[in-house]
Structure formats: structure tokens, C-alpha cells
Amino acid sequence: MPGNTFGHALRLTTAGESHGPGNVCILDGVPPGIPLTVEDFFEDLARRRPGQSKIVTQRKEPDEPEILSGVFEGKTTGTSLAILIRNADQRSKDYSEIKDLYRPGHADHSFDAKYGGRDYRGGGRSSARETNVRVAAGVVAKKILAEAFGARVVAYVKSVGEIEAHVPDPAAVTLAQVETLPDGEPNVVRCPDPEAAAAMVELIDSMRKDQDSVGGTAEIVATNVPAGLGEPVFDKIKADLAKALFSLPAVTGVEYGSGFSAARMRGSEHNDLFQPHPDGPPKIGAASNRHGGMLGGITSGQPIVLRCAIKPTSSLPREQATVNRAGEAATISTKGRHDPCLLPRFIPMAEAMVALTLADHYLRWRGQCGAAAG
Amino acid sequence: MPGNTFGHALRLTTAGESHGPGNVCILDGVPPGIPLTVEDFFEDLARRRPGQSKIVTQRKEPDEPEILSGVFEGKTTGTSLAILIRNADQRSKDYSEIKDLYRPGHADHSFDAKYGGRDYRGGGRSSARETNVRVAAGVVAKKILAEAFGARVVAYVKSVGEIEAHVPDPAAVTLAQVETLPDGEPNVVRCPDPEAAAAMVELIDSMRKDQDSVGGTAEIVATNVPAGLGEPVFDKIKADLAKALFSLPAVTGVEYGSGFSAARMRGSEHNDLFQPHPDGPPKIGAASNRHGGMLGGITSGQPIVLRCAIKPTSSLPREQATVNRAGEAATISTKGRHDPCLLPRFIPMAEAMVALTLADHYLRWRGQCGAAAG
Amino acid sequence: MPGNTFGHALRLTTAGESHGPGNVCILDGVPPGIPLTVEDFFEDLARRRPGQSKIVTQRKEPDEPEILSGVFEGKTTGTSLAILIRNADQRSKDYSEIKDLYRPGHADHSFDAKYGGRDYRGGGRSSARETNVRVAAGVVAKKILAEAFGARVVAYVKSVGEIEAHVPDPAAVTLAQVETLPDGEPNVVRCPDPEAAAAMVELIDSMRKDQDSVGGTAEIVATNVPAGLGEPVFDKIKADLAKALFSLPAVTGVEYGSGFSAARMRGSEHNDLFQPHPDGPPKIGAASNRHGGMLGGITSGQPIVLRCAIKPTSSLPREQATVNRAGEAATISTKGRHDPCLLPRFIPMAEAMVALTLADHYLRWRGQCGAAAG
Amino acid sequence: MPGNTFGHALRLTTAGESHGPGNVCILDGVPPGIPLTVEDFFEDLARRRPGQSKIVTQRKEPDEPEILSGVFEGKTTGTSLAILIRNADQRSKDYSEIKDLYRPGHADHSFDAKYGGRDYRGGGRSSARETNVRVAAGVVAKKILAEAFGARVVAYVKSVGEIEAHVPDPAAVTLAQVETLPDGEPNVVRCPDPEAAAAMVELIDSMRKDQDSVGGTAEIVATNVPAGLGEPVFDKIKADLAKALFSLPAVTGVEYGSGFSAARMRGSEHNDLFQPHPDGPPKIGAASNRHGGMLGGITSGQPIVLRCAIKPTSSLPREQATVNRAGEAATISTKGRHDPCLLPRFIPMAEAMVALTLADHYLRWRGQCGAAAG
């Protein structure tokens, strides 16, 4: 079973390498009649794109999507939707010298072990470039969720290195806060706490100057998702969301709600006590949301709150020890242009994967349980 | 798409509720010719079973598995393997009074929202009882991995509440250490650090007496897994392992290798530098294993190291505030017999899910890349 | 990818051999709230069962189904539904002598080639005994279709050997006609043309006396299925129905509507001309139904009409030439009790597979296109 | 579950409409290291292409494939392989007048019923144009089979209308015979019996002149496929091959081996008697091949022989009665350029689907049973 497909009722299949002709995705199972134009992809693709600001990589990737199928007269048709994003700024000469070297923190050796060879130009299939079509597909998923429930998915940077943002109410964070600072300037680091954001920019910039990189955490929040999405056993909504986030490059940990802090707590302090909901049943309220909007693998109606840890960029311009394909000790310094911190550009990717997962479960639930439930 | 199936080349489908006739699984795709008898299931089922020691629930569940198909003359046939474990000690009277109450921390309300009703006897499908057939299936997966690579999967309790075990080399922990203390007594908490184990037992026992519960973390290690398992994009091995662990009840976080600590690190301190391997190429070594045995979604040949956070048991004998199905405020105290800490019995479940995931990816890799790779 | 699962939104997974403990199925994705008791399975299981009449095999199989999960208080819960049917009359001594012989027309050698061995007791996994759980699952699928559309699926014997039934309007055939003759006697051959039925019984009986067997064709009709089920490309409804029927033992051909006769026709005589429907749009009528209720892979609203060819039973009590496992020439005569014609017992199997396929596509369509469509 | 994916271990996902920018496929699971260039697609695409001869449609479609990913330095990498074929000669003005009419024999109304609308330009997603990427993917499947077993798949026209070819040994038919007549001229109808071929050409040409169309049958033969491919129950090789062929447009019937003629036969005349194989065990021979190379859902080692019926082209230039979207009676005559007989261009499509199915089962078998089996 090959591994380039994600989802079941809403199913995304992708292909493409960083230095080939481009990346393409086929999103299958899209409900018919959803308004969609190529312009709808521009905003999120721009958020993911390299070269947006001084703290991200300066590679130029125009990321001009083309809808190849599945849209007719401005609406989805219900048949498979294909999106092609051609590669432009390939500069494969940057990578030719690492053809026989295994970059630390990368999958070069793992690819050779798996396939007996690899496309060594800039990571090939394992380059984060493949995420551009995920982000495009995520735009469609966001539309499905918005139309069905008025649901929205917003992600933001929670920490960079030791700098932690103060976000009193995750469910209240808006896309505007993530993208724009109170003074109207672009929020290049995508952290809704302006003070922390400023400190993060400074830290990332110092990393770049120091030929180093730094990790961080992102928080992803989905609001207005009704109770009832997810499956009780294997396809728990928390499990599918975790898979979605871990399928992104550089993610080393995922938690939801109380997450790892739950391991230190007592049941009597951890349980979120239910309480009557202002709208009355079948809705119920909760005094707190340590459960992150998911119980027993199924959404509870509370905001879904996830966090993930992102490792520091592995590609460094400084010299590092490694081995070559012959198994001999060697040194390497990555000449390509890389982000000193992956977090700012990770945000739209995380939103896309969370939206795709929730939209998939929405369609699965509608198929099994019909229109009456929810 | 229903959600009771896990895996692709090795595919586990399960059914069963805590208070119905029993749980059954169909494990499909098992290679033919693997020696297997019903006795092979006994050890891991005993490790998962309630009533093993004073620190776990005192429910009696005999967990006697029956192989319904897929084994002939002591070996797997290659056709679908079904295992049935009947329920015995059902005591459904314990649960009838909660029929119209939503237990805090449980999926009762989420089930009603999803399906318009639920089997209210002891959690029904969302009871952890369903994991017994996962553990049985995991035994087969462990055999596949052992035969293919001499690989083994061992899990253990890393922390309970604030008590953290000291485990200098995760890859060196043995099943014997997890199950038996140096003095030959059973290691009821399944922590390989004897001093921490003693403190954990004490803490869990105090929770029980206090009608409370406590969370913790587990660490899972797979050794002798070759480089090359996993897929570069969606079905990254880390993603599928995270889904596997998050599909287990009460898991609130998963990390691998450096995990969340990576978020605080610099690239220059985080990267594991490759070095020549004593066996020579195609194997390569690494000076450290902060990458937890996985790079770019593919195993690296280093030990696979995962951790997960388990929340404190939600069912508490003490009174808690909640609402009923009519949406009115109410109180509840769970009368059923529950574990004050889920960790000791979680260990074999985690091993099973990790083994199933790795065996699945092994067969997928063998299908695509054939015998020569790996 | 193992091959013991059928369907996507409604997904049937089975296990079991003819001479093991029994057969079990897990039907996943069943909508919640459908009334279901174990008695609902009795009628179709009785139609499939051996020993019903003198023209079928005299093996005794009680076929007592047990619902293991997925039903609570008389209704489906929406979680996975498991049904177990234990084997009773196994008589494995009948088969021990063919352990090292390859029966003509059977998969004995193919199993050895695939798996390196086989369960040689009565066909093991390739025995038609596995179809009992398919028939049970089909009962649930029929309920889903009846509840959704008032749709029903009826199959009947169209021909045995050279004897062809006259069925002027396939869509008008009732279950009562298939099961009972005009004189109130059981219609043991399940052909709705009483004259043909009598001749078929005579022919089959003569085959039995002659230690021989005979083939035939079955026709399957689904009525009240709305336009809109199926997918335009790979999962065409005709393709999934053909797979469903070909997945049954002994099926050597499948056609729908005009079928193979279309190959001899001109377009001007083959096209079914649309005409206004009495109910008005969106429904449309058709002057004829050579398209068998399916156009471009999607149902048209006309009755779905399929036919399949069933080969004569391969197991014969007379002596036949073959080879043994050592590759040497040998002779064999099958001592087990076998049907001289498979058609009468094939009917409920065909209905089950067609119902499962249609119910699957109904849930898939509801998931993608929602309640408004159809 | 969307329906634009075919296969499991070798998985083809497609998108595209007849009058959109183009068709694209992602073929996932391709073994690494297979030599592949864009030129490899030319021959089969040319066989499928319109405008090859006077008996097929005169539409001009250049069918220039572009490999977007999955090939590096002339070999497959093992990552997902994407192929794009842009549409060129779209002439959508031909179709605008049928926007509100339902063409007899087409899925126009079924699409409206399913999706609430459709791309009315030339069939949109249900146009046979989508098969061009299937044919391209089939080229890769043929390479996999050739490399693994020296297996090959050849299809040819067996009958057109009442004209039936005489093909004494299906397994001996070569691609050269299918493509070229004994006199060196192109075999435009793709029938290996030259006399029948000439009569077929004449018949098809007379249909064209008569503004009519005609059906026919195709035979597909796969040789050198070893015993052991396929699954005993649902994913029988005959079931998956039937689904593959029925997924192609205009197929109304599929049979294998003795097919529908088996329904008229006795077991004693139908059974193929096994006999020692010249190579010795584990191979065995058979005195005849009425079983078409498949027994119990698994290949037997004999040539695989399938036939399918193709209905006459539904689009006719002559006037036909129908209804419009408002449900009113109307007439229609299709102005687009269409084949008077679909068979000649169907041949490469059938080969592609059969090759994809067999290659999928080969990889599935290698995954489960490993290198030793077969």
C-alpha cells in the first residue's frame, strides 16, 4: 500500500518533487456545488511560500496553482479535483554536491535504504515543497467546514525556542491576529502575542546570523465543530489529527488539550465537568476544556485544541560531520537557502491538515449517520 | 468510511462492546507459515488483564481467546485470522444507573451526538475492553517482526504523576525488567527503574485510597528495525505510529526522539551526526538518537523511541458534577471497578499497536520494494 | 493488501474456513437505529443452507448466527457489527484422502502456489461455506436499502443447462414467486417460471443420479433504486456490482441489461430513448431498459438488471484424472456431499452481494452529496 | 469514499475532463528502479488515440504525456508517479447545444441526479478521454509484469456485430498480429484474423456512412502469469479483473474462460483435468483451459483469458428522441465526432486495466507471501 494518499471520504493524493516539474494533488470526494476559483488558493499559498519576510528562506517559488479538473463554471462538480503547482526556482546546482553525502537530520540515507536510490536534488519527494498542494487542498477543506458548520481552523506559533506566547483563550485567536500586528505591520512570525512575536523575530534572526536554527511549537484551534465527529476505536478524531500533523515535516510531538501535562495530574483536577448549555440539549457545556474538544475519539462540541513540536531546521550552512554513501566519514554544509525556523511557514500547513481531517470526518459521519445527526 | 480497521497490508478489524457477548478481531494479510497457537496469546493478554495486582482494577476478565480461522496444523495459512474473546464478568447492573448521565471525561455525550444513542453499559464500544483483541493481534505482529529482523518491541512506564523513572538506555530495557523486579517479585507497575517503580506503586495506591486517579507517561522502544520502513509523505512511520498510539484510550500526547524538547533546541545541538557503522555500508551509524529512529518518515536503523502521555482515569468513585441527557445539572460517582492509574495495563496495548504498525509497514515495503531492499 | 474486505462506506470483513470453528463477519459502517434481531437472518440463511431439498447437497449445517456486537436493545448502534456462525457438521474425514491431490476445477493447487500450503479440509477458506456470513450481512444491507428508498433486491434462476425460464418482466418478479410455486409447494430451484422450474428440477435430479453436475444462469433485479448511485470512473456501479458477483464461487460471467447481446446490435436499436416521467423532473423515463438501470457508471432510476453464469459444480463423485502434490498423474472422485447444481443456493448469495454493493454506494453518495441529492 | 482510485498496492488515481485543461494520474506504489521515459508511453497512447484511421473518430488529440514526478535519471524512484496529458482539440462549441438535453445512452441525467449538475462539455468526467492516463499507467504496469515474470498482456477484437474472428489459440496472439496485417498494412480494427478484420472494417465503415454504430467483443489474454496471484474471497482475481474491465466505458458484459457457455455445460465436460507439467512440480499442467487461468480466485499458471462485450456507441449523428432538463420531450442528434465502433480504440484500454490489476496483485502477493512463493 503506497503512502501518498490521505483521508477516506475526502481523499487527497499527491505527487511531486522539489526539483521536478512541479507538485500535483488530486482531491477526491469534494461535495458538488462549492464555489471555488484559483484565486481562493492565493492567500494560504502566500502564507506558506518562501521569501515572504526576512525570517524565512529567500527561495523564490511563485506557487501559481492551476485547477486541472473538478471545477466547472466556478463551482466544484463533485468529480476529482486536481491542482498543479509548477516549480520555478529550482537551482538544482545548489544540491549536486550533496549527491553522495547524507545530510544530518534528513532522510537521504533512509531513502537509499528504502528504495535503493533517491532524487538527491533538494530532498526530492521529502522536501517540504510537497506541502504546497496540501495547503491548496486545505483551502477546499476549510470551505467545506465553513459551509457545513461555520467552523474555522486557525493555527499560530505558540513558542520559539524558550520564548512562549501568552494566549489566554486559544479559541478567540483570529486569522487577522495571526497575520497582522496591532500596528498593521505583517506578523511575520505568526504569533498572536505581539510582545512574544517581536522577541521571536529577534531570536530567529539571530539564529540566521549564527548559521543555526531553532525549534518551536504551534497551536491549532478549530472552533464551531459540532459534537459527533470521529470514530470510537481506531479512527479516533485525535488519532487522525495526530497522524495529519505528524505527516508534516519536522513535527516531533503532538498533544491535544492538557496533553503531556495530563500525565502529572489527578483525575479529580483533570476531568472537565459537564454543565448545562445555554442552547439546551442536545448540546452540553463544560466548565473547562482540558479534553481539547475530543472525548473517546469523538468531538465534544468544545473547541478542538492541538499543539505540536517542530524541531529546529536540520539543514545548516555551517559544517557538520556525517558519512557519505561509501560509509566514510565526511563533512557537509548545506548551501541551499533554508528557514532558520520552520514555524512561520508551518502554520498554514498545519491548518490545512487539520481542516482536511475534520472535513473528511464530517463527510464520513454524514454518510453513515445522515442529515439528522450532529 | 467506518473506523474499525487499522493498517493496510496487515489489516486489523475489530468489533465488540464491554458488556456484549465478547470482542472479536479479524487480522488480514498475515504471512503464511508462521507458527501460532492459542497459547501464544496468553502472556500479553495476562499483562493487559484487569485484576493482576492490587494497583489495577479488580474486575475479573478471563480473556480466553479462541482462534476461529486462519491457523491450520499450528501455522498461519495466510487467510484471514479471527480471534474471539468472550466477555465473562459483565456485571451490567453496575452501569444501569448512569444510563441517563454523561460521565465527565467519557464519550457518553459524544456518542449520543454522533449516533443518536449509545450502549450505556460500561462504555460499550468505547470501553478499553476492546483492546484485548488488539493485544492478541499484536502478538502476531511481534512474531512477524521477530521472524523478519529479530526486531522486538518493549514498552514500559516512564512516569506516574511527578515520579519519573531513570532509564539511561531505552534500547537496553528488556521485557524481563519490565515484568519482574530484581528481587523476583512481579513488577506490577511495569517500570524498569526499581526505585521509581516502588514510589509509583505507593502513589497509585494512595490515589485508590483517595478515590482519585493519576496520569503518567509510557515509553515504547523498537529495536532491530532496519532502515527503510515508512513512506515519505502522508504515511510517515512517525505519523502511523502516532495514530496507532493515539487510537488507544486516554492518550493525550505522543512524541518521538527528542519530542517536545526539540522545540527548545537549536539545530546545531539537535542534529544527530552520522558516522561510519561498524558493519559498513549500506548501514550507517549515528552519534546520538534524538531523531528516535525515524527521519523524513522512514526508519533510520536506530532504535525507534516513542513516548506518550496518559491522562488520569476519568471514572472516579467520588462525586462529580455533570449533566444528564435532559441537559440538567446532576452529580455522578462511578460505581464500576476502575484502575486508579491506567499505565500498568497500557503497556501491552502500546506494544501491540507499535508492533502492528511496524509489521504493516514491513509488508508494505516488501510488496513495493521486494526482497532485495532493507 | 489483504482481500477479505468488501465495500468502502459499508465494509464487510470476513474470516472462516469450512472445517474450522466457524465463520465470522464484521460489518462496519452500519447506520445507527436500524431494528435488527438475530431472527432477521433466519430466512436468507435458510435459503442458502444445504439440505433444504433433494436437489441440493444433503450436508447438515444449522447456520445459527450469533450477533457479537453492534446491536443494543434491538437496534444497530452504528459501531461495528459482528456475526458468528459456528460450523457443526464438519465430517473432515470425508476430505482427508484428498490432502495430496489437486481436485479439478478447485483452487487446491492455486492455494499451494500462493501460500505454500493449504487447509485441505473441504476447501478451507475457498469453500462456499464462507458465504453464510455474506448472506447474513446482506440482510442488513437489504434493510438499509428498504428504509432509504423502499428498494428491494430479488434474484432467481434464469436457466439451468439448456432450460431457459421465460420471465417477461424481471422487475415484477417477487420473492414469493421465487420461493413458492403457484400450488403452494416450495420452489426448490428458485425459478419464477413454474414450467421451467419443473424441468430444471428434473434435469438437476438426473445430473445427481448420473454423478454429474450442470451450470446455469441467475438474474438479479434491484428495484426502486434512485438515479445517482455510483461513480463516474473506477467505481462505476456496474463495475462494483460485477466485482461483487464475481467474488462469489463458480461465477464465470456477468452482464447487465443487454449484456453480451449488445455486442451484436447497432446503436440505433440499442439506445434506450428517454421520455418524460409521470412524476415529472428530476425523474425521467425510458422507453426500454437495455441499459439495465445504469449509465456511465451511475444508476439511472430504471430497474437494475444483472445476470451471471455459474459453472457446473466441479466436485464430482465420479472418477476424474488429475495430479498429486508430487506432480504425478492420479485419479480422484470427490466423496463429500455436493450440489449437482449450484444455482438454487446461489440466489441468496447473489442478492446479498448486490444489496451490499448498493447500500455501500448509497452511504457513499449520502456522505459526498448530502441529503438534498438523489 | 470517492471513486477515482483503482488498485491497492499499485494504486492509480485520476482526474480530468474531456474539455478541461487535461487529464492527470498519480500512480502510487511503483517499485523503484524500473527504466521509464516519456517515450515509453507513445505506442499505447497512439493505439488509443482518436484519428488513427478512417474507422475511428477524427478528433485530433495529440496526447503528449508529461511525467511530473516519480522518475529520476530515467528510472522510477518508488515515490508517486504523476503523468499529465493536456487536452488540445477541445472544440467545446460542438457541445453547447446539448447543455439542457439528456443524450440517450449517456450519463447526463445520472450526473444531474447524483451531483445536482454536470460539466456538459462532451461528457466531462464521463468522457472516454479520461482513459488516456489509464493507458499511460498501464504501460508502467506492463513493465512491472514483464520484469517480474516475462508476463505480457495482449487484447484484440474478437467480434464486431455478427462478424466473429477465428482465433484458434488466444495465448499465441502477438501484439504484431493485432497491430499489423500480414501484408504489412496497419490492422486498423485490431483483429488478429485477417479475413474477419477486413469484414469488420467494411461493417464499421458502413455504420459510419449510415450514421449508426455497432458493438462487439474483445478478448484479453495474459500469458506467463504464475500460479498464486489473487485472493480467495472478495478480491478474487476474476473479480478484480471484471471490475477493471467494467470500469471502462461501454462494457456491458465480462466473462472468462468458458464464460456464459459454462452455464450450458455439465461438470464432466467442463472440468479441466490436471496433468503433470513438463517442468515438474510445483507447476502442474492442464489438458484444457476452460477455467481461463483462474481457479478459486487465484491464478492457476494457465493463460488468463477474458472477454468483454462493448455496446454500440451511444452518440449518433442521426436524430433520436429524448427529454430535456425540464422533463419535456425533445430530439437530439450528436454533432461531435464519435467512433462508429468503440472496439479498435478499446483494445489498449483493456490491456491497461488488466495489466494494472495483475501488477497490483503481484505486489500484494509479494508483500504478504514474500519472495519465496509463486
From TrEMBL, chains A, B, C, D:
<feature type="binding site">
    <location>
        <begin position="311"/>
        <end position="315"/>
    </location>
    <ligand>
        <name>FMN</name>
    </ligand>
</feature>
<dbReference type="Pfam" id="PF01264">
    <property type="entry name" value="Chorismate_synt"/>
</dbReference>
<feature type="binding site">
    <location>
        <position position="337"/>
    </location>
    <ligand>
        <name>FMN</name>
    </ligand>
</feature>
<feature type="binding site">
    <location>
        <position position="54"/>
    </location>
    <ligand>
        <name>NADP(+)</name>
    </ligand>
</feature>
<keyword id="KW-0028">Amino-acid biosynthesis</keyword>
<dbReference type="InterPro" id="IPR020541">
    <property type="entry name" value="Chorismate_synthase_CS"/>
</dbReference>
<dbReference type="InterPro" id="IPR035904">
    <property type="entry name" value="Chorismate_synth_AroC_sf"/>
</dbReference>
<comment type="function">
    <text>This reaction introduces a second double bond into the aromatic ring system.</text>
</comment>
<protein>
    <recommendedName>
        <fullName>Chorismate synthase</fullName>
        <ecNumber>4.2.3.5</ecNumber>
    </recommendedName>
</protein>
<comment type="similarity">
    <text>Belongs to the chorismate synthase family.</text>
</comment>
<feature type="binding site">
    <location>
        <position position="48"/>
    </location>
    <ligand>
        <name>NADP(+)</name>
    </ligand>
</feature>
<keyword id="KW-0456">Lyase</keyword>
<keyword id="KW-0274">FAD</keyword>
<feature type="binding site">
    <location>
        <begin position="125"/>
        <end position="127"/>
    </location>
    <ligand>
        <name>FMN</name>
    </ligand>
</feature>
<dbReference type="GO" id="GO:0005829">
    <property type="term" value="C:cytosol"/>
</dbReference>
<dbReference type="GO" id="GO:0010181">
    <property type="term" value="F:FMN binding"/>
</dbReference>
<dbReference type="GO" id="GO:0008652">
    <property type="term" value="P:amino acid biosynthetic process"/>
</dbReference>
<keyword id="KW-0288">FMN</keyword>
<dbReference type="GO" id="GO:0009073">
    <property type="term" value="P:aromatic amino acid family biosynthetic process"/>
</dbReference>
<keyword id="KW-0521">NADP</keyword>
<feature type="binding site">
    <location>
        <position position="296"/>
    </location>
    <ligand>
        <name>FMN</name>
    </ligand>
</feature>
<dbReference type="InterPro" id="IPR000453">
    <property type="entry name" value="Chorismate_synth"/>
</dbReference>
<dbReference type="GO" id="GO:0009423">
    <property type="term" value="P:chorismate biosynthetic process"/>
</dbReference>
<comment type="subunit">
    <text>Homotetramer.</text>
</comment>
<comment type="pathway">
    <text>Metabolic intermediate biosynthesis; chorismate biosynthesis; chorismate from D-erythrose 4-phosphate and phosphoenolpyruvate: step 7/7.</text>
</comment>
<dbReference type="GO" id="GO:0004107">
    <property type="term" value="F:chorismate synthase activity"/>
</dbReference>
<keyword id="KW-0285">Flavoprotein</keyword>
<keyword id="KW-0057">Aromatic amino acid biosynthesis</keyword>
